[in-house]
Amino acid sequence: MVKFHVKEASGALREIEVPTDMNLNLMEVLKASEYEIEAACGGMALCATCHIEVLEGIGKLNPRTDAELDMLDTLPVVLSNSRLACQIKVTEDLNDVVLRLNNS
Length: 104
Ligand code: FES
Prior knowledge:
This protein is an alpha+beta fold. It is built from 2 helices and 5 strands; from the N terminus they run E-E-H-E-H-E-E. The protein has helices spanning 26-32, 66-72; strands spanning 2-7, 13-18, 51-56, 82-84, 98-101. It has a 5-stranded mixed beta sheet, with no helix packed on it. The mean pLDDT is 95. FE2/S2 (inorganic) cluster binds at residues 27, 39-41, 43, 45-50, 71, 84, 86.
């Protein structure tokens, strides 16, 4: 299991605990946790609707791929800590990461 936190619009931190052995990506976990993410492309790095900001721990995550960077470049605002949640694998690396959804 791995635990990470989502900073909600209210400023509250919500802890989410998820198994690491189910080959999930972060977008899938956030959707299952009832966050509103359209995920129109189904996790193919083709829609950018799963845009998040990683507030703490970005250096621990798998690096952005060229496909992810290309899609992020299509957004009007991209920050140095912007990621596509569908491109982040749920592994032990997510432990203690803090993120927020781009729309929150
Ligand atoms: S779900 Fe489409 S880019 Fe992540």
